[in-house]
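User: I'm putting together notes for a lab meeting next week and I want to include a structural view of one of the chains we've been expressing. I don't have a solved structure, so I'd like a prediction I can at least talk through. The sequence is below, exactly as it appears in our construct file.
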Amino acid sequence: MVHSVLREQWLDFMYICRAIFHDVFVEGRSLPFLNNCIMITE
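Assistant: Thanks for the context. Below is the predicted structure for the 42-residue chain, given as structure tokens.
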């Protein structure tokens, strides 16, 4: 139960980060480590 809550909070955090850096991704200056984190959590 605790793990699912933590996982949900982590996913929320990652989506917030992706939203913050969305403009950077659109401009083509992606951050590889952040992309890797997002791919791992999905």
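A couple of points you could mention at the meeting. The CA atoms of residues 12 and 29 lie 23 Å apart. Residues 2-41 form one domain.

User: Perfect, that's what I needed.
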